[in-house]
Design goal:
Chain lengths: ~240, ~70
């Protein structure tokens, strides 16, 4: 397990996995888009606007997945000072933030024709907006502290405290009377959605999840290189000073 | 082109936002990765090595940061 935490070992694995993930994620997204636009029937209530769900729902899942990943990595960073943990946490924030942005905008574009409003201060929508602000806060905190060790510890604390918002998002539709519909896929008793609509949704979700993992691996590789560049420049300065 | 009914503009807008946001993210991350690896390769070509490079390359077991190895 610890050997996987070795950045050099991690880079070797990432270099081998990235080409496969690239092919697989874009293949799944291509199939997902074909199913969404040419195979999925209109919903009996939503009509063709159900197609927005094929990007909105996976984006919302990945928004929460990204934050959970950051919180777990932050625990690893704070407790075990795991070599890759704060690299993983730092690089997941822009990706999770982008998927949160997509979930908010596509939800809003679905809300206007279906609810008659782009935005309502509903518990689910508001908690998703809070998640987006948390992502922005984490990115800003990383940018504002120059030394990576201090920045990692400060953002790890914020990330762990902010994780309380993830179960609030998930259960907001049960705890409060919301305009947003309750869970219709991962629920006791099985999904309430017809397989003809569920298939494109799952294919798009699989494609976007692989894309998330792919981008996270590339971003982690870049961050490890950035830290090595920083270390080498320090060596370069010390050599120049000693000469 | 699929027929998307009276709300087509909302559907196209949702997919356009998704494609633009994801494409921007991919571009930013891939460019950053290329740039950092290029900078690292340039420094290594100059013969500059990290102090820990030897031990990290030889080691198959990573040690958690801050934990001293047992004597």
């Amino acid at each position: 397990m610890w050997s996987l935490a070795n950045p050099t070992h991690f880079l070797g694995i990432a270099d081998r996995v990235i080409p496969w993930l690239t092919v697989l994620s874009f293949l799944l997204l291509g199939i997902g888009l074909y199913l969404s636009f040419f195979a999925a029937p209109p919903d009996y209530q939503q009509g063709e606007t159900v197609k927005i769900m094929f990007v909105h729902v996976p984006a919302a899942w990945l928004a929460m997945f990204g934050y959970t990943l950051i919180a777990v990595a932050s625990i690893g960073s704070l407790i075990w000072r795991h070599p890759l943990a704060d690299v993983a946490a730092k690089t997941a924030a822009p990706i999770g933030g982008t998927f949160t942005f997509i979930a908010l905008i596509t939800g809003s574009l679905w809300g206007k024709p279906m609810w008659g409003a782009y935005w309502v201060w509903d518990a689910r929508l508001t908690s998703m907006l809070v998640l987006f602000l948390l992502y922005l806060g984490l990115i800003a905190l990383w940018q504002s502290i120059e030394e990576p060790g201090r920045a990692g510890r400060a953002t790890a604390i914020l990330a762990i405290v902010g994780f309380i918002n993830v179960p609030i998002i998930k259960f907001s539709v049960d705890w409060w009377n919301t305009l947003h519909q309750p869970a219709s896929i991962f629920r006791a008793g099985g999904p309430t959605i017809d397989p003809s609509l569920l298939t494109p949704l799952f294919v798009m979700a699989a494609g976007l999840t692989l894309l998330f993992v792919l981008l996270h691996l590339i971003a982690m590789r870049a961050e490890i290189s950035r830290r090595r560049v920083h270390a080498l420049r320090q060596v370069q300065v010390e050599r120049a000073a000693a000469a | 082109m699929p027929e998307l009914g009276p709300h087509a503009v909302f559907i196209w807008a949702a997919y356009a936002v998704t494609v633009i946001a994801v494409a921007g993210l991919v571009f930013f991350i891939v460019q950053d990765d290329r740039r950092q690896r290029q900078l690292l390769a340039d420094l290594e070509r100059q013969g500059i090595r990290r102090r820990s490079a030897k031990s990290v390359d030889k080691s198959s077991q990573a040690k958690p940061r801050g934990r001293k190895p047992k004597p």
